[in-house]
Amino acid sequence: MHKQTLFVFLLLLSKTINAQQLNTIVPVPVKTEQLNGQPVKLTTNAVISFDDIFTQQAAYLQQQLQQQCGLQTIAQNRKDAKSKASISLQFSNSISKDEMYVLESQQQQIIIKAKTVRGIVNGIQTLLQLLPLKQTAVVEVPACRIFDYPRFAYRGMHLDVVRHFFPVSYVKKYIDYLTFHKFNTFHWHLTDDQGWRIEMLSYPKLNSVGSWRDSTLIGHFKDAPARYEHKRYGGYYTRAEVKEIIAYAAVRGITIIPEIDIPGHSRATITAYPELSTDPTNKWGVAATWGMYNRVNNVLAPTPATFEFLRKVFHEIADLFPSPYIHVGGDECSKMWWKQSATTQQFIKQNKLKDEVALQTYFIEQVSKYLKEKNKKVIGWHEIMEGKLDTSTIVMNWANDAKAIEAANKGFNVIMTPGKPYYFDHYQSKDPKDSLAIHGYNPLEAVYNYDPVPASIKQKGLADKILGGQANVWTEYMEWTTKVDYMVFPRMTAVSESLWSMPSQKNYTDFLRRLKATVIPRYQYWNSSWFKDFEKWPAEK
Ligand code: TNX
User: Fold this and answer.
1) How far apart are CA 140 and CA 144, in angstroms?
2) Whose CA is nearest to atom 8 of ligand 1?
3) How large a percentage of the chain has pLDDT more than 70?
């Protein structure tokens, strides 16, 4: 080929590559414009300038550029930067929304403007998606202007580390997944019948006893690794590890909401401290099987010792986590143990409570008082809304739209986490050979098509009460981290777009195109597994 023709051909090719990059962003931005002009070139020793509030995010961006493209960059505070920086992270008050960012790439400079850490992190994620996932000497970013902000204020992912316990390194990796997808909240399910997974100073037996179970279901996992057999199973995160994880998330604009699940789901607690239960003989131990657990007592008894326990425990949790909200659980509390207990019945009478449901409410009201003493607000599963709680309380609705409407009418803000389609312990296929899961079919397309503000809520004029949504990852059937990855990907990516992008911008076919172009290469880059057959398994009409 003639030299000049080759040159023109290469130039055209580079243009199309740039154009492609711009329309592959996930979640799809509010507005993306391609600008005339040359792409911005980044090479080693490129300068990243930053305003004070983005100091840590500049360091984060440096690490990412190094890992992703092999670019060694220099970070400089904007006050000290002498020449024009290649990338500039700028604080700007003219940005109208908290998590909004504006990214401009032109005239040899990429400027990202935001007014919060979360905003700048979101902009950085978009920039990283525009860069190649390989080591290169010169990285090009197309001339463009991207204007972007999320549809919902609350965009969460949950992880149950109780049913199965995952190392600190994986929790951080999971937080990286959230960051990439522009989520802003990590809901950390830390206690349940099967274990207590956070170090406690006030009640040490929660760890020495409550963090461990004798065995777990054996033979359930047909695709389990050969080593799969547990005798003593468990563990917990130390306070130092928890602090490290909180700091890691904070740099990435992610708030961690810890969940201490009461007054049901408390088998681990009452194994460690039988005196807190209605049955102090307590012969069962920390649960090693799953389910609502009606067979074995798992509720707290309403006694002075229990309320003292709750006050100390929730204070300790409140002191450790900067989140303004603490999750108190409140779900699936079996009433039969309270019905059978004479002292509990006496308590119900003395306090003029109507029944056991009112007692459950009483527990949540007490804990909300303890949290208020520490300036924290309550978030809990929708069962909590029976109580006299102030309207700063957030209701996490795992049931149907009617429950969300009820909560909104009571004045509460609501987060939508309906089992169908936001429980990722459900199957992604109907293939009988698929890895073991529960509760039926919940494929990618159904997840993608779900709108967290369903028509019934819109019609009632309650859309404003919906703060956002969250997918829940219950890990009864996810014993190893590759299984978690397999269950969450690509469904997590679909949720991220539903929570970020406007409904008018959503389109499943286009989502699949962008998923394949941008996000599946990321799963590979992370060395994560994912469910590959998603196109074979459509939503049921
Ligand atoms: C219900 S919904 C639970 C969890 C289980 C899950 C399994 C809710 C708040 N609690 O304890 O892990 O179902 O799908």
Assistant:
1) 12
2) 331
3) 93
Looking at the predicted structure, is the pLDDT value of residue 14 above 60?
A: no
Report the CATH number that the domain containing residue 230 is assigned in CATH.
Answer: 3.20.20.80
Q: Which of 394, 410, 393, 390 is nearest to 402 (CA)?
A: 410
Q: Which atom of ligand 1 is nearest to the CA of 192?
A: 11
Average pLDDT over the chain, rounded to an integer: 93
- Whole-angstrom Cα distance, residue 113 to residue 88? 8
Find the 160 Cα to ligand 1 centroid distance in Å: 10
> What ipTM was predicted for this assembly?
0.98
pLDDT at position 307: 98
What residues have CB less than 8 Å from 515, skipping those under 6 apart?
A: 26, 490, 493
Closest CA to ligand 1's atom 10:
331
User: What's the rounded mean pLDDT across residues 15-38?
Assistant: 83
> Is residue 259 domain-resident?
yes
pTM of the entire predicted model: 0.95
- One domain for residues 480 and 516: yes
Which of these three, 127, 148, 169, is where a domain ends? 148
Residue 2 domain-assigned?
A: no
Pairing of strands 40-43, 325-329: unpaired
Among the listed residues 241, 244, 332, 365, the single catalytic one is 332
Mean pLDDT, residues 279-295: 80
Ligand 1 nearest atom to the CA of residue 329, by list position = 9
Q: For ligand 1, atom 7, which residue shows the shortest CA distance?
A: 474
Q: Which of 116, 148, 180 is the last residue of a domain?
A: 148
229, part of any domain: yes
pLDDT of residue 15: 45
| Residue 429 structural domain | 154-536
